[in-house]
Design goal:
- It is a single chain.
- The chain is mainly α.
- The protein contains 13 helices and no strands.
- It has helices at 3-16, 125-131, 142-161, 163-184, 191-211, 216-236, 242-261, 264-267, 270-287, 293-313, 321-339, 346-360, 362-372.
- The radius of gyration is 39 Å and the shape is flat.
Length: 373
């Protein structure tokens, strides 16, 4: 190809790039294109304006190559297209020369920090407490204790009105027990398990009302047996892993058992329910006071016994209410301790922390109420 044939193309190039190109110093002046045998043959240009790793194809001669100082558009092969702009004097890095990402400051052994913000491994509050030598047990606090006291007073008032007056706060207690136990075991949402456990409590209530208070043990134990069998059948239909299925089975059975056991308040003597509800209310409020651990336990038990004596004076139990109140207070503290295990969430405190003291006291209220009445 002669210089006369190259001149139109050079002129078009100069006209398309009026800026950033010095006509007096043309790097392509006097150079012939490589391998041009036919004007219709695709041309491949090699020079400082092209990436040396990848040779793009220029289809028609009318498409002029980009100038060396123009920014390159991101392409599929350009691994550095989204890197920060480089200085004009720096050479364009090759894809295999892309600098590696800077290591993240800190690591799993660094100080505790919030998750997903500094790249550190997330430590649970219980793990942090054990690492620092603190106890991973946190009591629900004064707000759940106040709700427990309110619910206990409602149970006592409902028992004084009759079985159907007691049924309304009892159903609320059973619902909170079913939801709180699943969340306490880290299973949430567990709508089917909660609904199954709550339905077991309702079935026990209905069976006890139909059979009568004298047949309360048969109604409660019979409903519990039926619900355990029903839970087994439903878990066998699950497609989860064996370990997860077994864990769900045990949690569902335990939640149903606690919900059904709470029906003991409905089967106990009304005077015993009055004493037990007030004793649990006093014990939970006293336990939530800012006192040292052993002193708080002693004060809570004394408050439960005192509430039992006071409530017994308004009922036929008399001074025997102190024993019933003390037993109900012990059961309430056990329920509080279970609800406090391993840094539970706020939802656990407001459900299991509210319901478990009263639910755990149901067997003591029923048995001692029958023995002392």
């Amino acid at each position: 190809m002669s210089s006369d044939q190259q001149q139109p193309y050079d002129q078009g190039y100069h006209q398309g790039h009026p800026q950033g190109h010095d006509p007096g110093h043309d790097p392509y002046a006097g150079q012939q294109p490589y391998g041009v045998q036919d004007p219709h043959v695709t041309q491949t240009w090699q020079g400082q304006t092209w990436d040396t790793q990848y040779q793009p194809v220029v289809q028609p001669p009318q498409q002029q190559p980009q100038h060396a100082q123009q920014p390159q558009q991101p392409t599929a092969y350009d691994a550095t297209a989204y890197l920060p702009p480089q200085p004009a004097t720096a050479a364009h890095p090759l894809p295999d020369e892309t600098p590696a990402a800077a290591p993240v400051q800190g690591g799993p052994t660094a100080a505790y920090s919030a998750p997903t913000t500094s790249g550190h491994t997330r430590l649970t509050d219980a793990q942090r407490a054990r690492a620092e030598g603190r106890s991973p047990i946190i009591a629900p606090g004064i707000q759940p204790a106040a709700l427990t006291a309110v619910l206990g007073v409602l149970l006592a008032g409902g028992a004084a009105l009759g079985p159907y007056g007691l049924l309304v706060p009892l159903v609320l207690l059973q619902a909170v027990t079913a939801a709180g136990w699943f969340r306490l075991n880290g299973m949430w949402p567990a709508r089917q398990g909660i609904a199954l456990a709550f339905a077991g409590g309702l079935a026990a209530d209905g069976a006890l009302l139909a059979a009568g208070r004298e047949n309360a043990p048969a109604a409660i134990i019979g409903t519990l047996g039926v619900w355990v069998l029903l839970t087994l059948v439903l878990q066998l239909r699950s497609h989860a892993d064996p370990d997860e299925r077994m864990y769900g089975l045990m949690a569902t059975i335990a939640s149903a058992a606690l919900t059904i056991v709470a029906t003991g308040h409905l089967g106990a003597a009304p005077d015993a329910v009055v004493v037990g509800g007030l004793a649990v209310a006093a014990a939970t409020v006293a336990r939530a006071l800012p006192l040292p651990g052993p002193a708080s336990v002693v004060v809570a038990l004394l408050a439960a016994a005192g509430a039992g004596i006071a409530a017994g004076g308004f009922t036929d139990l008399g001074t025997s209410g102190a024993l019933l109140g003390l037993a109900a207070g012990v059961c309430a503290l056990v329920g509080l301790h279970v609800a406090s295990y391993d840094y539970p969430s706020r939802f656990v405190h407001m459900t299991a922390g509210v319901a478990l003291p009263l639910t755990a006291a149901a067997p003591a209220v029923y048995l001692l109420g029958r023995a002392l009445a």
